[in-house]
Amino acid sequence: MIELTHSDESTLSIGFAGDTMNTASYLARLGGDMLQTDYISRVGDDRYSLDMLARMKAEGIGTSLVEKVPGKSPGLYLIRTDEAGERSFIYHRSTSPARDLFGPDQSLDVDETLSYYDVIYLSAVSLQILTDAARRRLWKVLDVARRRGGTVVFDTNYRPAGWDSAEAARQAIEQTLRRTDIAFPTFDDERLLFGDSDTGACVERLAAWGVDEIVVKNGSEGCLVRRGDLHETIPARVVAEVLDTTGAGDSFNAGYLAARFAGSTPVAAAKCGHALAAEVIRWPGAVIPSQAMPAPALNGPGC
User: What is the CB neighbour count within 10 angstroms for residue 94?
Assistant: First the structure.
């Protein structure tokens, strides 16, 4: 989406962001030649859509699965941050072309292509904008991809305002988690939606649904990692001055995944995720300047 961030009460700066887009940007930066990161969406044919595509390409993100829809323009959202760096959002995206993903006018060739990817990453915001029929079509893609040996990664990012009801969100998120290999729940979201008493309860619920690798993000408390016999809390990095928490969880996910794809253990990967998130919250906006990225070595000082 188009990201409008308050610089002050009367001045907005423009960018391009969104939870999965943020993660894709950081993954492309961290992965280098090791990873090919592509994005699937729909945009318009207006100036902002073209600028958005140019931004993706500049980040090294493949755009072959991003369709341009004539006469349309992308959604946008506005961000305000308080003195502690906590953010609030206002969305304007009811006519965004991305809402028609996996709809009746999208070629089945897209489903087939997507199902051959090694990894498919999505979030609950991805689910939120789709129709019920489109979600069912997406779930079929995930099922086929997993049968072909692919990995599904899901961030259960819950934004209540975008759902018809909490129950609709619970059902859609659960159905996706039952098709997930690596899950990135945020504890505050899970407690609100599923009533989990603590991070351990969250882990047990997801494990019972068949999720193999679970990383429960818990803000300044760090994260709880569970895979097989591993069940360990990894503390977050202390940041003296927090400017903007936008994109913190998205960047953590990217740091974790890049490290895991490079062969790191889940514990080492969580430290990489924390290292990137700690830098991101020191900058305004969801995607920080490339020169502000931590040291590139995924298993070295940068983590």
Answer: 8
Sign of CA dihedral 223, 35, 251, 29: positive
Reported as half-sphere exposure (CB side, CA atoms, 13 A), residue 66 has a value of 19
250 part of the active site: yes
pLDDT at residue number 7: 74
Tokens of 164: 């018809």
The CA angle 255-260-265, to the nearest 5 degrees, is 110
Residue of 200, 114, 187 lying closest to 156 (CA atoms): 187
The dihedrals phi and psi of 170, each to the nearest 5 degrees, come to -60, -45
Identify each DSSP E strand in the chain by its residue range: 2-8, 11-16, 38-43, 62-68, 76-81, 87-92, 119-123, 151-155, 182-184, 213-217, 223-227, 230-234
Q: Which of 100, 189, 244, 250 is catalytic?
A: 250
Q: What is the crossing angle of helices 187-194 and 199-208, to 10°?
A: 70
* CB within 8 Å of 96: residues ≥ 6 apart: 1, 42, 72, 74, 75, 129
Q: What is the mean pLDDT of residues 256-284?
A: 95
Distance CA 284, CA 245 (A): 8
Q: What is the pTM of this model?
A: 0.92
Nearest-10 Cα torsion for 159, 161, 167, 168: -90
Q: Are 53 and 61 in contact (CB under 8 A)?
A: no
**Two tokens, residue 215:** 């990383």
Quote the pLDDT of residue 273.
Answer: 96
- The residues near 272 (Cβ < 8 Å, ≥ 6 apart) are 255, 256, 258, 259, 264, 298, 299, 302, 303
